[in-house]
Prior knowledge:
Blueprint: E1 4-8, H1 13-24, E2 28-33, E3 43-46, H2 52-65, E4 68-73, H3 88-116, E5 119-124, H4 136-156, E6 161-168, H5 174-179, H6 185-192, H7 202-212, E7 224-227
Amino acid sequence: MAKSVLVTGATRGIGRAIAEQMAADGYEVIGIARNPVPDFRGHLYQCDLDDPIETQVILEKICRLHEITIVVNNVGAVAVETVGTITSTALSQQWRVNVEASVMTIQAALPAMKKNQWGRIVNIASGAVLGKAGRAGYSASKAALLGLTRTLAIELGPFGISANCIAPGQILTELWASNNQPDSQQTRAMVASIPRRRLGKPEDVASAVSYLVSEQADYVTGQTLYVCGGLTVGRNYG
């Protein structure tokens, strides 16, 4: 029987690419997303992960129906606010979606992982954890995933469970394209600053997830992998 992987934010951008990669790798894919799609390769559950009560209900349902031993916390909320204008509303939402929902998802799947003495947790953070103008709340909440991942690795390692983090750089998703003109001077300068001289693809992140949940990565835990084309090497992310 195929191992079951739960992917949050699974119908768009990076999350959709991860779900597709996991299906191609032979896993049973269970997705959670606010926006459903008709051609999802697996079981899709609609849920707003900004609502803790709704999230808890759907997680309990999923774990009754599926034995989840792999969790990929991909969902993310972002608000563009500079220091001095940060609102508690946006800050709270980013914490609920980026951190609280991730913890809830891990804890829901933990009994099955411990029972099997095997599990994989991959948290999707962001290169913005290294600092990015206008993203104070977002970078703070995503940076929390790095600390969470390290603690998970320590606590869960004895149960055969690994926990790692991926921090993507500039990835060409639908959201990225809607906020950046492809031929603008700003975009060209951004691409020129990336050592690989191209934007990342969602599939680049999905490939990294594929490795970290595999048996080949069994001895890798507590790590953060920057999938950034070299952008984060020796410079700040902003």
